[in-house]
Design brief:
This protein is of the alpha+beta class and 77 residues long. A three-stranded antiparallel β-sheet has the order 1-2-3. The longest helix is centred in the first third of the chain and has 18 residues. The relative contact order is 0.09.
Length: 77
Amino acid sequence: MKTLNEKAMRVLEGSIPELASGAVRQAYIRALASGSTVVEVIDGQLVESRPDGSHKVLKTLPPAIPVKPGSKRRMRT
């Protein structure tokens, strides 16, 4: 087994968002192909997408709250 150095680790970590995006897209396509519906956000609305290509708006969502990458958020209990 080959030991990774810091540079190789950073390169691999940099590819995580692209790999995750591809996996989510593939799951979306597989779900629709199997006849299931998919719930997603489109233009600020929660939408149910069906395998036949139709869409049903379930709810209009409030505006997104911008969060800076790396910032810490506390959840109120």
